[in-house]
Design brief:
single chain; 417 residues; mainly alpha; 18 helices
Amino acid sequence: MATAALPRPSHARRERLPALDAMNLFLADVRDGLGPYLAIYLVSVRGPSHGWNEASAGVVMTIAGIAGLIANAPAGALIDRVYAKRAVLVAAAVAVTLASASLPFVEGFWAVAAGQSLAAVAASVFAPGIAAISLGIVGPKAFTARIGRNEAFNHAGNAVSAALAGLLAWKFGPVVVFWLMAGLAALSIGATLSLDPQRIDHAMARGCSDDDEEADDACDPPSLWQTLKGAPTLAWFAAAGFLFHLSNAAMLPSVGQLLAREVGGDKATSLTSACIVGAQLVMVPVAMVVGRKADDWGHRPIMLVAFAVLAARGLLYTVSDAPGWLLAIQLLDGVGAGILGALGPVIVAAIMQGSGRFNVAQGAVTTIQGIGGALSTSLAGVMIVGAGYHAAFWLLAVIAGGGLVLYRLVMPETARG
């Protein structure tokens, strides 16, 4: 429930905002939960002797993904309505960390699925929360550049945490990932609490007019259905994002499982960390360039590049199973996913500017895209078990190509410049 309106803060929109930088850096590993490490742990550490294979691991990830996507729209509405945005992010970081760190002590398919679902539900507030705080501090004119900076620090955080996970897992085994995540969660909480709440304009944070003094009264967040019905361009963007995530979400977990089969679980964890580090290091400059140039170059051509690179990545995975080749191709994730991460919130903000629906709209888009991500791991897992890894990668590449065609045909240009 919203509290009484606070005085509208003044905005120094071009500040670097080190507290916001630190929040993105340390939340990077927390917001994604266990990610690809979940599949490696279940398949290579517990394995068939405990009833786990690629298909069952994929189903757990799908169940968790569905739980998270159901929570996305309510999470966006929650962020729109509350002023205690920092407290919501802190509570979510604690919940994700506890749910993930408990995995080594949890037995049984449904217990694992329940814990990962809880983590996914809690994590649903991170994207709208960080975007809303950013928009509420810097305003719409500086939002594209700020999101690019957010994503750069997010990817840098992922790269550092993945490098640490790889090095520590090589010596202590895959379980070290859980303890590393707990340490980063503590740092993320400190960074979040260091952000001055008085700097956040809560009306602007949900996409109300920068100049409307009555924004808190005039902009009431609508329902999910009203949001999609009233913005067909938003619905098309969500549909294209569905295909992107249906293709992309399973690629890294599938590569991790393939590496586990080739070199063993302990080495696969470290190699998967190397995959993540490489891609995240590519994402840092990609996010910075997109943040600075997207409004000048246009959102549409940049998004088409993201889909094209994703399709190429799926095809190139089929060339060889050699660890070095798989690591090299994973670098392309830094281009495709890096573009979508930096540009997605900007496109939603451009579509919904002045409506007061930004975070609900972002939640709606994330829900639909999340359906693609949730289905992706099960689809790939079933395909791997039935027809092999190369068939799965071919299918994921074709899906990415479909997203490219859809975006090219139906999405207008959304850049303000």
